[in-house]
Amino acid sequence: MNTIAPSKNSPMIELTGVRKNYGNYEVLKGIDAEVARGEVVVICGPSGSGKSTLIRTVNRLEEIGSGSISCDGNNIHRPMPAKELNRLRSRIGFVFQSFNLFPHLSAIDNIAMSPIRVKGVARDVAYAKATQLLERVGLTDKANAYPGQLSGGQQQRVAIARALAMEPPVMLFDEPTSALDPEMVGEVLSVMKGLAADGMTMMCVTHEMGFARDVADRVWFIDQGQIVECAPPEEFFSRPQTARAQRFLSELRH
Amino acid sequence: MSSFDLSEILGNPEYVSMLLLGIEMTFVVAIGSWVLAMTLALLLLGLRYAPGPVGNAFVTAYVSYHRNVPTLVQLMLWYFGIFTLMPDGLTFWLNDHNAEAIFAVIGLGLCQAAYFSEDLRSGMRAVSPGQLEAARALGHSYVSAMRFVMVPQGTRNALPALINHSVSLFKNSSLAVAIGVAELTYAVKEIENLSFRTFESYLLVTILYLVFSLMIMTVGAYVARRADPVRSGRA
Amino acid sequence: MISDIIAIIRDYWLLLLIGQYPNGPLGGLAATLMLSVLAIAFAFPVSIALALARLSKSPLLNWPVSALVYFTRGVPLLMLILWGYFLVPLVTGASVPSFLTMLVTLVVYQGAFLSEVVRGGIVALGHGQMEAARALGHSYLGAMRYVILPQALYNVIPSIISVFVSTIKDTTLGYVINVPDLTFAASQINNQLLTQPFQVFFILAAVYYVICWSLSRVAVLTERRITRKRAGTAAQATAKSLKLAALTDQPS
Ligand SMILES: Nc1ncnc2c1ncn2[C@@H]1O[C@H](COP(=O)(O)OP(=O)(O)OP(=O)(O)O)[C@@H](O)[C@H]1O
Ligand SMILES: [Mg+2]
Hints:
- The complex is a heterotrimer of chains A (254), B (235) and C (252).
- Chain A has helices at 51-58, 82-89, 107-118, 123-136, 152-164, 182-197, 209-215, 233-238, 243-253, and strands spanning 13-22, 25-35, 40-44, 66-71, 74-75, 92-95, 170-174, 201-205, 218-223, 226-231.
- Chain A is an alpha/beta fold and 254 residues long.
- In chain A, a hairpin with a 2-residue loop joins strand 1 and strand 2 (25-35).
- In chain B, 40% of the residues are buried.
- The longest helix of chain B is centred in the N-terminal third of the chain and has 37 residues, at 13-49.
- Chain B contains 10 helices and no strands.
- Chain B starts with 6 loop residues before the first helix and ends in an 8-residue tail after the last helix.
- With 235 residues, chain B is mainly α.
- Chain C has 252 residues and is mainly alpha-helical.
- Chain C has a single domain (2-248), classed as Orthogonal Bundle (MetI-like fold).
- Helix content of chain C is 79%, strand content 0%.
- Chains B and C meet through helix 3, helix 4, helix 6, helix 8 and helix 9 of B and helix 3, helix 4, helix 8, helix 10 and helix 11 of C.
- The structure holds adenosine-5'-triphosphate and magnesium ion.
């Protein structure tokens, strides 16, 4: 896991010259980067720097102005029929800061519904898989609980299981723990660590520096819409190259 | 039927004057009942907050009746029913002073007051109790906290509902036709009868209603925007 | 006075209940309820279609629906009924019972109103649900079908009941085109008795009150139930629900 060398030759995610504007305001100012297969990338940076925007462009929850993004060999932002985009999206897992579980469905229904409706998986197969995933995130006993009856940490673990149910080769996380009470952060991070250990390709916006240190292969530091630094965690944390990264890290430690 | 021709109506001074009279009466009924309704609504709201259970029970019953009986039936009960039970002197006086219009104002106003007072109450309830506490903690008296903190927020919360209900009050002025008030709907039926121009007369009056309603909505939206410190740029 | 009222009920209860039926069309309370139930039953699917059209980005879809919504919000129902009375026979080319004309008018009118309720329910859910469903690969309509509508429609059940109550009250306006409903029956009784208008219209008001009050209670209880069930998940913005309540709870 600690090598950057991809298992296959092509990178899993490839961003080339990605730019995006909100009106006159340029949020992403030309992003060039790659995520190798099996690599875990942690993205950090000050608030408003464009981290969410960047990660959301990868499964096209946001459109981009120019440049291109490919994932597993597919150009995500090319013009394509809606059907094709839905198929591609189902192969990119996304975990939201605010969970966004479907409150009208129980935990296990949350996990099984999309494989059935989107991929046409048979019910019993989907539910068997969902049961397995619940076990993996440690929530076997909560299968029939509704989101409203779960703690934040439990909800987020269900959300991760829900994304995994589509069997995506890539998982994207946008601050998955920052809406959680401190005592629940650990349980979510340990699920994510498990995923990384299993070889999942991950892109993760987070300020959990402990997680970055332990799990990440590389850290991207973003500021004002640009990747300012890109280095293995030990290097980034001990020898940040730019003044901006130094200031960010020192503020984070306080 | 001959082809579409609005000038058949708009070119006829008799029809035009019927239309204008209808518009005038519609506004008399709508504005009269709006003023009555708002005044009563404030009284009802005061009663709600008055100490003791009697005021509250009265308002609950008042609101319940006026919201659960069709407005048209309320008007009929006033004009065909209660009117006949009144002492002769009063009946004569009312008959001399356009009794239909007066009962339309009373009926619609009383009914609408129930809606307005509930709008205001929900608006007040939507202000978080923390606001009152914060104001009291800063040393405001109860009255002063109400005056400067609660009521401004409560009315602002109530505005969208009040505007909606003002539009429906305006539309409901058309119900007055059922008790013989010569307002706009009455005018259109008369014009239709005389001119045989059903489509044209309906179209004309429909547009008039639409324009007036949209005017109320626009003014309402403007007032709501002015009342919102963020959107009006006074933040 | 009270004995008058009892006497009227004793003599005319059947007329109030079913009108002239079977010697004439079904009328009275039965017609009022049937008209209301049918109107809501047809207006409901119409309203979902209208709400989706209004939410769509295509101006071809959302423009006409917005126009319809503003039209029904700005024009008195009475005027729409007159239009219906004029247009429905013109379109169908046959003379149509006033009951049917009234039904068509109510479906259009309440369909437009209800579409605002449904749209409000969808909007109140926020972006997160749609985004999460799309991120899982659902199509727009799939997300609507499996994620958004089940929640939105459930949440607006109380408002739908309120619209139903409004519909019952709205059926009274059928008098302009002589729909044989409860109000019509009461007018008939009044015309026969001539001397007791207060008593007759008092009974009429009382019957409507009992029905609409009961249904309003059901709406309130359902609302409480739903709120309880939703407690713990994302709280809905008060302002939004206030606006929604004002929309459905119209005098008529
Ligand atoms: N829909 C939008 N319209 C206009 N501006 C937006 C929009 N979404 C985001 N922005 C702006 O784009 C910039 C980047 O936003 P983004 O959410 O990507 O930041 P972030 O790095 O994720 O910040 P945070 O750490 O606070 O989540 C911010 O300045 C934000 O105000
Ligand atoms: Mg963010």
